[in-house]
Amino acid sequence: MPSLPLTRLACIPAALALSVTLVACSSNEEPAPEPTPSSTPETTTATSSTEETTTESSESETTETSTSSKRRRGDEKVVDDVREKFASLAPESLFDDLESCVETSLKGSYDCSGPTVGQLQFFASKSMAEDTAEVLTGLSSSRVVEETDEKLVGWSMLGKTAVITVVDKQEGKVLQQMVASDVDDPEQRIFMLGLADSYSEPTAETTTSQQRK
């Protein structure tokens, strides 16, 4: 936060206007010497005002720095909670890149962001995990990139937007990210984030489900 502006001081003359009376007693006498001027009350007041303003500015900066530090510590705490709770969905490198996580109004869900990984959403919900898995394996607009007994990775198209999804089927947890398909290839994005190691062919169960659709 920038410092508060210092009060601009007007230049105050230090010299006092003195009246000098010349006594003409004789042509040989010299005038009395003028007294040395001293600081005016106005100068003292202005200096005091400057010191008070500087002190207030320093106190304001200290308070702001303390608040920012507490906020950063709070963000780190939430990021650590997300890392621990959703570790099965993504590699450590993804969580290392997260700078901020905020718990949303939906219980067990978080909005997170990082400079490399972008915006991500995490959900801890068994019912959502089941529904999301059905969408990935059941819709023709969805593509499965990797599927195991524990995890499902792929994306679904919503117009020109691809919703990248990772589902932990056993723990009931979901990671999602929305990307513009005309900007990012969703499959390459999945590999870039480390969400899948390699492409695996859909299982027989998945193929049958898609044919029914």
From TrEMBL:
Annotated stretches, region: Disordered: 26-78
Record's signal peptide: 1-17
Extent of Low complexity compositional bias: 39-57
Keyword Signal: yes
Keyword entries, A-Z: Signal
Domain of life where this protein originates: Bacteria
Name listed for the protein in its UniProt record: Secreted protein
Annotated organism of origin: Corynebacterium meitnerae
